[in-house]
Amino acid sequence: MDEAPQSIQGLVCPVPLPHKDQIVMGHGSGGTMSHDLIQRVFLSTFDNSILSAGNDAGSCLINAHTRLAISTDSHVVSPLIFPGGDIGRLAVCGTVNDVSMLGAQPLFISAGFILEEGLEVTILETIVASMGQAAREAGVQIVAGDTKVVQKGKGDGLYINTCGIGLIREGLTIGGEHSQAGDLVILSGPVGDHGIAVLAARGELGFETDITSDVAPLNSLVQSMLDASQRIHVLRDPTRGGLATSLNEIARQSRASIVIDERSIPVRKAVSAACEILGFDPLYVANEGKLIVIAHPDDVQKILGAMRSHPLGTDAVVIGQVEGSPAGRVLMKTRIGSTRVVDMLSGEMLPRIC
Amino acid sequence: MDEAPQSIQGLVCPVPLPHKDQIVMGHGSGGTMSHDLIQRVFLSTFDNSILSAGNDAGSCLINAHTRLAISTDSHVVSPLIFPGGDIGRLAVCGTVNDVSMLGAQPLFISAGFILEEGLEVTILETIVASMGQAAREAGVQIVAGDTKVVQKGKGDGLYINTCGIGLIREGLTIGGEHSQAGDLVILSGPVGDHGIAVLAARGELGFETDITSDVAPLNSLVQSMLDASQRIHVLRDPTRGGLATSLNEIARQSRASIVIDERSIPVRKAVSAACEILGFDPLYVANEGKLIVIAHPDDVQKILGAMRSHPLGTDAVVIGQVEGSPAGRVLMKTRIGSTRVVDMLSGEMLPRIC
């Protein structure tokens, strides 16, 4: 982490932020700085309702018979290979998952590679093999590609951009704007594994850990949930910015309040311990194989049943519910019985985590 | 151009190439080194017929009613802004054009941004505005986006990846594999403008020039051609590697011979002069607003008529024809009356041109 010191969640920034009209690492955090930049620069220019919906994928009508989910991600994770995965697996799963969060079945993926001069071809081959394996797991085809090379010192080994195209079942309307007061909030499993695994791979933990990234394709889990219930209103995978940031996005989109119970949120002991030492809150640490489900309360048992019968949803649990107000806010009942506001990530916590 | 000396078309490489198991700049040339890397690393792993077809876009059947063209490009051009365009306009047009080369109507684009810490936000705003303008010209919507930030010294200001999704008219089968002996080869206008304009912007010409990039969205030109003829067999935009490399790709895909006439190939005087001084062959210099058409000879006058009534095809001209043998070869009748083989670009001529 060689960037200038930034604000860390809950701490006051000890030094001034860089000039406000330059890009800083915090603009890539997925938190408030990212949202502000996206609003200021991108949404105001690329003015269209699909992009402005603010979901993990755009919902695009192609013709009377066909609605697509389209999503893209550039992957700049450092290091390229980490416990439980690598940039190739991450690129495929990240895009498969974003497409799945509209309830779509991902079918096709494109892959653009920016290679730094000097990258060993064997490393590239390892990562590409891992992409192929992840694509087979997810049942998607990589149908378009591009390779560019930049001079040494103008990249960092390898960046991968993926775009995913999926087919949305007819009649399905899932999105962050659809949560309703009374809905329950389900989390598919423990949070924070991916972020801590990448930090460990950088040697930044200062101690040994056996935490591995949770990076996995969630599309088959989603399809089994959709088979179990037609009242799933929201799906989201809490990546950069973590669970707290994703819940805030949903609360804003739905103009609702989300109230979660701290005691119900699963966190592995090793992740919890690492976060305590590093001063991180696991609610803000990235995941790459977890999802949030918000659904009608009457269907929650059916959904939990479907999730728990799937290898990627065995630890699924209800963590909270949607309420009418305060609109756009996430509140948490803490272990000691109080209630506190849970904000979106501000500044930069873990750069280049995905 | 701070990379190690490389072979230049027509010259013997003066120093040994870097270790063969590392990525070198030539792997990004779009010529034989790119093709070898793609074959060795990507095609063998992502083994599917859509990708292996080797066209500018993948032809993907979504359901009984819908066939999509999907294409991606990462853009790493240096400098970010050049005469006639910038990386934003290039990203949109490059992807619109690749999708159009299957005869598809491009509808949606995704955009992934890799920003280097320290990039001025005003430069980003300028480029994003230019993307918006190019998208409006092409009639496409930017429906998915992503923003990542890398530390200073791990990027070069801004890289943009775009993926395009287009709808292929029912019954249309256009692709590099479909040229037939007897077909004629049309070029939409003079070659080499983009490459020389970018070189000029780098200050590498050593003299003044008013050449501007030809970067433009070709989809409306393509649609007017498709309205004029149902016997267009191949469309291709000769970008990296230039006209010579694109024709070689088509000759290989179709297992045919393509014979072109040097005197018929339009090159602006200023481009020709710049190439002569630099030792470049304009046939290998990148274009971003030109296309090659290969069609049944009986339809060529209709197609030329449609092209010449369009602002981007006013200089369209027949440059050659397809023959049965020698299969996979491009031959050129030279100005002095001899015939020579025109190979694919080998090594690297102009790095980071798109």
Explain how this protein is built.
2 copies of one chain form a homodimer. Chain A is an alpha+beta fold and 354 residues long. Chain A folds into 2 domains: 32-168, PurM-like, N-terminal domain (60s Ribosomal Protein L30, Chain: A, 2-Layer Sandwich), CATH 3.30.1330; 176-341, Phosphoribosyl-aminoimidazole Synthetase, Chain A, domain 2. Chain A is 28% helix and 25% strand. Chain A has a 7-stranded mixed beta sheet with strand order 9-11-8-12-10-13-14. Chain A has a 5-stranded mixed beta sheet with strand order 1-2-7-5-6, covered by helices on one side. The first copy, chain A, has a two-stranded antiparallel sheet with strand order 3-4. The longest helix of chain A has 18 residues, at 121-138. Chains A and B meet through helix 1, strand 1, strand 2, strand 5 and helix 4 of A and helix 1, strand 1, strand 2, strand 5 and helix 4 of B.
List the keywords:
homodimer, 354 residues, alpha+beta, 60s Ribosomal Protein L30, Chain: A, Phosphoribosyl-aminoimidazole Synthetase, Chain A, domain 2, 2 domains, seven-stranded mixed sheet, five-stranded mixed sheet, 14 strands, 28% helix, globular, disordered N terminus
Low-confidence stretches of chain A: 1-17
Which oligomeric form is depicted? Answer: homodimer
Q: Most extensive chain contact?
A: A-B, 82 and 82 residues
Q: Specify the CATH homologous superfamily of the largest domain in chain A.
A: PurM-like C-terminal domain
Q: What is the first-to-last residue Cα distance of chain A?
A: 14 Å
The percentage helix of chain A is: 25-40%
Order of helices and strands of chain A: HHEEEEHEHEEEHHEHEHEHEEE
Total count of strands of chain A: 14
Strand order of the largest sheet of chain A: 9-11-8-12-10-13-14
